[in-house]
C-alpha cells in the first residue's frame, strides 16, 4: 500500500492544481508540532516567488479547496504561508483497516525489483568473536531484515577473513609446536593421512602468540610469510590444516551469532573469491591500470578534487601473495557473477573508510561492476565505556562477544529472579530480555556515532529501552489473552473515540514510513524511534482507559482491535531489529 504521506500529498497537490497552482507544491510532511497539527504543507512559501503572490493568500486558497474533505478535519492557513493539516478520525480508522489487511502490514514496497548484497559480521578464522564484532553483526542483520521487509531481494554474507597473513602466522606456530603432525611432512597425503583434533582453547591462544613472536623473531616471520604463499597455492598439508581450523572456527562463530539471532545466507570467506584473483589481475592489466611499485602491483585510485591524499591500492604484495584489497576486489567480481546486485553494502568500522574508497574506486575503474551498481561502506562507531574509550573488561582486556552476551543475560536474570509472572525456568526469557537490551541500546543510536555501553540503563523497564518495549508487548499479550483474541487476528478499530487513542492510531498509520526511512538512511534507529513512540503512546492509552471493563461494547471492541494492531506492528518492528519478544515479564 502507498505511504500515508504520499496519499496526503496527492490530495493536497490536487487542491493546489484546482486553485491554478503547480501541483508539485503540495508535498505533505509530518508535523514537528503535534500540538498544532498532524501534518504540514509549506508549498505556498515556494509558490509565492512563482506566482508573485503573498504565500498566505496561496495557503488560504488551498485550505479553502480542502474544506469539507473526507480526509482532513482541519486545513488551516497560518502566517506566513503554512498549511496545517489534521486527519478525520474516519479516514484514520480506514487507514488502520487497510494496514491490518495488508500482507506487508503497511510497509511500502520498493517500486522495482532490486538485489542487495550486505557484507556484515566480518569474523576471522582462528580468532574468537570479540566485542568489536557486535555492531557489524547486529546493524547488518537489522538492515538485511529491513530491506527484505521493503520487498527487496537481500543476500547476507558473513565474509570470513580466512586467507591472508593471520593464517600464515597461525599455521606456522602450529608447525613450531607440533612438528610431528602429518600435515607438516613432505609426503602428506590428504586422502590417507589424518590431522589431530584441534583444541579450541589452544587455537584461540595461538594467533596472538604468533603475532607477537613475528615482531621479534625474524626467522619465524619469514616462515609465516612463506606459509601464506603455501596456503594460497593450496600446498596439501597446509591447506588440509587450514580447512580443519576453519571448520572449528565457523562452528564456534555460529553459536555466538545464533545467540544474537544473527544469521547469514552465505558463509563465504576470502578463500571463496580466490578463484577470481587471476581474472582480476588480467582485467586490471587489460585496462592498463596495474603497475609495479617497490616490487608490489598497485593501481592508482586518486581523483582530481580529492581533499586528502588517496594512495594507490596494493593488489599483489612483492612476494606475490594477495591481501585484503585483493580479496575484496575478487569478491566484488564473484558477487557480480553470482548475484548481479544493484547494491553492495559493507558494514565495517569507520576507521576502514580509506580502504573502501580505494577498493570501490578500483572496482569502478576496472569495470568489475556496472557504473550504476552502488558500492557503499556503512561505517559505524565504537561501543565505549563511561570514559569514552573502547569498552574493555575490568582488567583492561578486550571482552569476547560470548562474555558480553553472558553478562547481559546474567543481568537480565537478576531482574527476573523475583518475577511472579514467569513460572519455571527463566533462562530463555532472561536471554531474550538481555539481548533485546543490548541490541536496542546499540541500534537506537546512529550507526556512525560512538555510544556509551550502560547496561543498567539498557535494562531499565522505563525509558527508551528494549526492555520497555518487550514489557509493552507483554502487557498487550495479557489484554488479548483475557479477551480471547489471537495474536495474528487481523483486527483494526472501526472508530476512534479520543485524543490518546488518536495519537496512537496516527503513529501506527505512519509506522510503515519508518521502514522506508531506515532503508534510505541505512540506520535501524528509525525503527527504534517508531517502536518507542508507539509503545509510549500505547502506555498512555492503556493508562487512560479501562479497556477490558469498558461497558460500551463498540468502544471496547475498537479498543481491543487497536491493541491487537499495536502488537502486530510492534512485533514487526522488533523483528526487523532481530529482537525476539517474551510472553510474560
Number of helices in the DSSP assignment: 19
Major beta sheet summary: 4 strands, antiparallel
- Write down how many β-strands occur, each being a DSSP E stretch of 2 or more residues: 13
In spatial order, strands of the major sheet run 1-2-4-3
Q: What's the shape?
A: globular
CATH class of the domain at 401-576: Mainly Alpha
* Structural classification: alpha/beta
The average pLDDT is 94
Low-confidence stretches: none
Hey, roughly how much beta strand do the residues contain?
5-15%
What CATH calls the topology of the domain at 401-576 is: Isoleucyl-tRNA Synthetase, Domain 1
| CATH level-four homologous superfamily name of the domain at 401-576 | Isoleucyl-tRNA Synthetase, Domain 1
Write the layout of secondary structure elements.
Layout: H1 4-18, E1 28-30, E2 39-41, H2 43-51, H3 55-66, E3 72-78, E4 82-87, H4 89-101, E5 115-119, H5 134-149, E6 153-157, H6 165-177, H7 200-214, H8 218-232, H9 236-259, H10 277-286, E7 290-293, E8 296-299, E9 313-316, H11 324-339, E10 343-349, H12 353-365, E11 374-380, E12 383-384, H13 401-416, H14 427-443, E13 451-452, H15 455-458, H16 466-483, H17 499-521, H18 525-544, H19 553-576
Parallel strand pairs: 5-6, 5-10, 10-11, 12-13
Antiparallel strand pairs: 1-2, 2-4, 3-4, 7-8, 8-9
Helix pairs in contact: 1-3, 2-3, 4-17, 5-17, 6-7, 6-8, 8-9, 11-12, 13-14, 16-18, 16-19, 17-18, 17-19, 18-19
Amino acid at each position: 500500500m502507498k505511504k500515508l504521506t504520499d496519499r496526503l500529498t496527492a490530495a493536497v497537490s490536487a487542491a493546489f492544481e484546482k486553485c491554478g497552482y503547480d501541483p508539485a507544491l503540495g508535498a505533505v510532511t509530518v508535523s514537528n508540532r503535534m500540538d498544532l497539527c498532524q501534518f504540514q504543507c509549506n508549498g505556498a512559501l515556494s509558490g509565492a516567488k512563482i506566482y508573485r503572490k503573498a504565500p498566505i493568500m496561496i495557503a488560504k486558497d488551498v485550505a479553502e479547496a480542502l474544506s469539507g474533505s473526507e480526509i482532513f478535519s482541519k486545513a488551516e492557513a497560518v502566517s506566513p504561508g503554512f498549511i496545517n493539516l489534521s486527519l478525520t478520525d474516519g479516514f484514520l480508522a480506514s487507514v488502520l483497516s487497510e494496514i491490518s489487511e495488508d500482507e506487508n502490514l503497511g510497509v511500502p514496497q520498493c517500486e522495482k525489483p532490486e538485489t542487495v548484497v550486505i557484507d556484515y559480521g566480518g569474523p576471522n578464522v582462528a580468532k574468537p568473536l570479540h566485542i568489536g564484532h557486535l555492531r557489524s553483526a547486529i546493524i547488518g542483520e537489522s538492515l538485511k531484515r529491513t530491506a527484505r521487509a521493503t520487498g527487496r531481494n537481500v543476500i547476507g554474507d558473513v565474509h570470513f577473513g580466512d586467507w591472508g597473513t593471520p593464517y600464515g602466522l597461525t599455521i606456522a606456530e602450529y608447525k613450531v609446536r607440533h612438528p610431528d603432525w602429518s600435515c607438516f611432512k613432505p609426503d602428506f597425503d590428504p586422502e590417507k593421512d589424518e590431522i589431530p583434533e584441534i583444541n579450541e582453547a589452544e587455537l584461540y591462544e595461538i594467533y596472538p602468540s604468533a603475532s607477537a613472536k613475528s615482531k621479534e623473531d625474524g626467522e619465524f616471520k619469514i616462515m609465516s610469510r612463506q606459509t601464506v604463499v603455501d596456503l594460497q597455492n593450496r600446498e596439501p598439508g597446509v591447506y588440509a590444516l587450514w580447512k580443519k581450523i576453519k571448520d572449528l572456527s565457523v562452528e564456534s562463530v555460529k553459536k555466538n551469532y545464533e545467540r544474537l539471532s544473527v544469521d547469514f545466507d552465505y558463509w563465504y570467506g576470502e578463500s571463496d573469491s580466490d578463484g577470481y584473483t587471476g581474472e582480476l589481475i588480467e582485467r586490471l592489466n587489460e585496462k592498463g591500470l596495474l603497475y609495479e611499485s617497490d616490487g608490489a602491483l598497485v593501481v592508482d585510485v586518486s581523483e582530481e578534487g580529492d581533499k586528502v591524499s588517496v594512495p594507490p591500492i596494493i593488489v599483489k604484495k612483492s612476494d606475490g601473495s594477495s591481501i585484503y584489497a585483493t580479496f575484496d576486489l575478487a569478491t566484488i567480481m564473484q558477487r557480480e557473477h553470482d548475484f548481479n546486485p544493484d547494491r553492495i553494502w559493507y558494514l565495517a568500522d569507520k576507521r576502514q573508510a580509506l580502504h573502501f574508497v580505494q577498493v570501490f574506486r578500483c572496482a569502478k575503474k576496472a569495470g568489475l561492476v556496472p557504473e550504476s551498481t552502488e558500492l557503499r561502506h556503512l561505517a559505524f562507531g565504537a561501543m565505549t565505556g563511561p570514559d569514552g574509550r573502547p569498552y574493555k573488561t575490568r582488567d583492561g582486556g578486550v571482552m569476547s562477544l560470548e562474555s558480553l552476551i553472558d553478562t547481559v543475560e546474567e543481568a537480565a536474570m537478576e531482574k527476573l529472579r523475583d518475577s511472579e509472572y514467569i513460572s519455571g525456568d527463566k533462562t530463555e526469557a532472561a536471554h531474550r530480555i538481555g539481548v533485546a537490551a543490548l541490541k536496542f541500546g546499540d541500534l537506537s543510536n546512529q550507526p556512525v556515532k560512538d555510544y556509551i555501553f550502560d547496561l543498567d540503563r539498557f535494562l531499565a523497564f522505563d525509558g527508551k529501552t528494549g526492555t520497555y518495549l518487550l514489557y509493552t508487548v507483554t502487557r498487550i499479550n495479557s489484554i488479548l489473552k483475557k479477551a480471547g483474541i489471537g495474536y495474528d487476528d487481523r483486527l483494526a478499530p472501526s472508530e476512534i473515540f479520543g485524543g490518546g487513542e488518536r495519537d496512537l492510531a496516527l503513529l501506527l498509520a505512519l509506522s510503515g514510513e519508518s521502514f522506508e526511512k531506515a532503508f534510505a538512511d541505512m540506520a535501524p534507529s528509525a525503527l527504534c524511534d517508531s517502536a518507542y513512540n508507539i509503545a509510549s503512546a500505547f502506555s498512555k492509552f492503556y493508562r487512560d482507559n479501562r479497556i477490558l471493563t469498558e461497558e460500551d461494547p463498540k468502544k471496547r471492541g475498537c479498543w481491543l482491535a487497536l491493541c491487537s494492531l499495536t502488537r502486530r506492528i510492534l512485533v514487526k518492528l522488533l523483528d526487523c531489529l532481530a529482537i525476539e519478544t517474551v510472553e510474560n515479564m
